[in-house]
Amino acid sequence: RRFSTATVRRRETFYVTQPIFYVNSVPHIGHLYTIVLADAVARYAGLHGKSTKMSAGTDEHGLKIQQAAERAHEDTLAFCTRYSDRFRDLMAASNASVTDFIRTTSPRHHRAVAMFWQQLVDRGLIYKGEHSGWYAVSDEAFYTNTQVEERVDPASGTRSMVAIESGQPVEWVSETNYKFRLSQFGDQLRQWIADNPVIYPEIRRNEVLEWLRPGLSDLSVSRPRKRLQWGIPVPGDPEHTIYVWVDALINYLTVDGYADGPLHGFFPPNVQVVGKDIVRFHAVYWPALLMAAGLPLPKRILAHAHWTMGGQKMSKSRGNVVDPF
């Protein structure tokens, strides 16, 4: 019996993303929690007959990785590979239904980032300018004066500036960077969040709206190469390295074939699972970058809380972690 392909109904797609994990150390149980949560969402969609994609992977660029490899006296790529393999092992041990494991050091990702950057340049949304702010190496993020505070170490009495959001130490940095015209997208972001139940739970949605309320400043999207060598060079300007978070967020496009022709039909993500500490990057910077490139926006951002130890978030940097294996 012959069948016409015109009558064959294509299965509905469903795309779930895990955040890509930083390879400055081994996985802990908080990473396993994220993996299992994303896997449960993907399996549920599969049970409903949907063709599912679940992306995962490792974020391997940035100053924190560069410094960690130097401390270990290791080649940086070899250092990244060693820890990336441990995250891949954790996916396998947890039986997670990952369809695409992405490394940001891979050639396909470098092509995707360069292509995305050029789109923003062509649209006049990236420019070169002076940038000053408080930089947290651990967070790989700049903070404004209102986002930092002075704290006193109770044991030593030492005073230092830290990011209020993460508690990580910051240092004042002034440099010439490339900047993204984030300030142009505040109204669109507010409207998107108001019109769509995109950020869950509600407390995180309200948090994002509060961040947007006073308006947005343009975002520094590069670092001078002399400060940060381990990353993707700015196309046409090898003296600058693309900001690690811009590089990292584009992985969600890379896994759907962005650099190699038409997208494969899964983008935009149906659900993006993230920890609450990276909501700003996923619910402000990421959708603004997609708006700037004329690409569709994620349908749901699911932000979970943290596993804690001794009242503090588990952190590889602090060492207060539980081995998930």
Describe the structure.
The protein has nine helices and 18 strands. It is of the alpha/beta class and 325 residues long. Strands 1, 2, 3, 4, 10, 15 and 16 form a seven-stranded parallel β-sheet that branches. The protein is globular. The N and C termini lie far apart (52 Å). 41% of the residues are buried. Residues 1-8 have low confidence and may be disordered.
Task: Provide the fold topology.
Layout: E1 13-17, E2 21-22, H1 29-47, E3 51-59, H2 63-71, H3 76-93, E4 100-103, H4 107-122, E5 126-136, E6 141-143, E7 148-152, E8 159-163, E9 171-180, H5 186-195, E10 199-200, H6 202-212, E11 219-220, E12 222-224, E13 233-234, E14 237-242, H7 244-249, H8 251-254, E15 271-275, H9 279-293, E16 301-304, E17 308-309, E18 312-313
Broad shape: globular
Distance between the termini: 52 Å
What level of helicity do the residues show? 25-40%
Give me the Rg, rounded. 20 Å
User: What structural category do the secondary elements indicate?
Assistant: alpha/beta
Features:
325 residues, 7-stranded parallel beta sheet, 9 helices, 18 strands, 25% strand, globular, disordered N terminus
Summary of the model, kept short:
With 325 residues, the protein is α/β, with parallel strands linked by helices. The chain has helices at residues 29-47, 63-71, 76-93, 107-122, 186-195, 202-212, 244-249, 251-254, 279-293; strands at 13-17, 21-22, 51-59, 100-103, 126-136, 141-143, 148-152, 159-163, 171-180, 199-200, 219-220, 222-224, 233-234, 237-242, 271-275, 301-304, 308-309, 312-313.
